[in-house]
Amino acid sequence: MCCEQNARFMQNRELSWLRFNQRVLEEACDPAVPLGERLRFVTIFASNLDEFFMIRVGSLYTLAAMGDERQDNKSGLTAAQQLSAIYRRAQELSALRDRTYEEINRSLSGCGLCEVQPGALPADERRSLKDWFCENVLPLLSPQVIDANHPFPHLQNKALYVVAELRGRDRSILGIVPVPAFVQPIVYVSQQPGRYVRTENLIIEHIGMVFDGWKPGACSCVSVTRNADITPDEEEGRDLDDDFRGRMKRLLKDRPRLAAVRMECSAPLSPATEELLCKKLSLQSGQIFVTSAPLRMGYVFSLLDKLPPPLRQQLLYPPFAPQRTLVPANMIRTVRQHDVLLSYPFESMEPFLQLVREAAFDPDVLTIKITIYRLSSRARLVEYLCAAAENGKEVTVLIELRARFDEQNNIDWSERLEEAGCRVIYGFDGFKVHSKICLITLRAKGKIMHLTQIGTGNYNEKTAAMYTDLSLITADAGIGADAADFFKNMQTANLEGSYRHLLVSPFQLKKRLIGLIEAEAQKGEKGRIIMKMNSMTDFDIMEKLSEASCAGARIDLIIRGICCLLPGVSGKTENIRVTSIVGRFLEHSRIFCFGEGRDAQIFIGSADAMTRNTERRVEIACPVFDTQARGEILHILDVLLRDNVKARRLTPDGTYSRLETGTSPLCAQEYFMDEAQQKAREIAPQKPAGFLQRIVRRK
Fold it and tell me: Domains along the chain?
């Protein structure tokens, strides 16, 4: 009964995510988006769907295989029922992806950039490609037939394979050819740069040479998606004293061998081949996706990056670099004078990196402590932390090794940090540390003081240029004291510490957020709530928002991805409006605003309103006290809520609708880019003497 009541104003998490990915694909369908960027959105859609199957479908697949009949508390669906709905909807989206890719490829052909099929080329170009194939690919292939003496091989997660039906004198057999990951994914057709073929299609074109002595029949390229949801906290037989980093290394080796949850094919399989593959991979026919789009599209990013300038101008967004809107001679001195709020990717991450670099060499700095969840493959932050340790500072790094798909990268960085003399600690069993906090402690005029940075996104220099995030740097003594207590609690394995200003999960954040929602509900029609995040799934928070709506409070939720709360439902969520923005940059910042004007309580942090964030992770949300920083955040929320170009509104039936732009179109991300560029131009004459010379010398 409870599930039936909730279903009135809540929807299933997984189906909501698929609607989010549909919005990504809709960007690829939008004729107002440059053609090259549309191709990039197809690639992002495919990558998103891959990860969804590996993690979310993989987890449900495990539950269904165990016969788990528990119902989702939002929709009343069991794991098996969710899987059935997911596969059905995913098939529809994959078909839309195929049509979109084919349309974009046709349009790109008019610009001289497109994929072509080897068999459709003129004879001279086919000969040239055959020569290249024989020299660069054929010697590297390891074809195999499947019979009693050649057992079915393990198909790696998301690797490409060409399967071919082969006929000999007295039998028919199946052949499999792995497409080596180290072979270039595309080959340009020599006579017209910009036209290219995919390497797997070259293998199919010359399959007779690959299986010499056999007569090839139907061929297809296949890719298997496997469950990748490794859970180190549930590893059986582990030693509690075992090194966590070593345990993660072992689990990463197991990931490629987990159960298959999907198989993609570039062409329909014969009944015999489909039956064999399904049997070997324990798949059903509904888990097979036949697609005409490339099965692996990672090459698109380098393809677009290498475009000549005229094509870049024609096919891509105008170039934009994060702006230096703050260029202090001394960042530590600046933060001691006033708070600094950085808005990525419109503003550069450089001021924060400058702060850490200064701290590494400042004799007054005593300690640097930081939590790390994801880093880029090249991270100046790590260089500065290592320099600080080598300069005698006490550097503590809490690095989360379970950041999904970044596990190996984080293992490598943890080893580098340890070698430099940093103290490296890890998260808790059962609780990932997802917080983004950095604490610099120094001695100033004989007194100890703290500089604290709290962010909504990772310390990743690459994603800071692609994701919208906020970074607050403050010398506020109360926040600094809380931050010091937080790190002490992390180092002493105490998850239940109390804090005066910071909202920390898993034991405080959710309770405090609910209290703030209830306070706005008590104001009735004067209540005002604005919450911006990636996703919303937490049942208790959604119930409280529904109660606040029924009390008359006006509620705006700006949620890019999953939103299980349905707005506009009579008697439940009539005063709630849900906006999703999918655009050039990935909306990633988390902002919580309760009340209006000077009395508003504003927080930024690392947590979404998801049960995993509020109950099973260590997250931090920080209050914003500084008047100017508060004004900047309220301005950001106001512009986002006025977006009528990239914004879509969630309707009571779970679908999204575009807004009418009218005569005054406003794209929030373009607005913020223009603002940042104007601000950078205004401060350019104020850069300290010698600044340009120092930049030149660094280069």
Answer: 2-315 (3.30.1840.10), 331-501+682-698 (3.30.870.10), 518-666 (3.30.870.10)
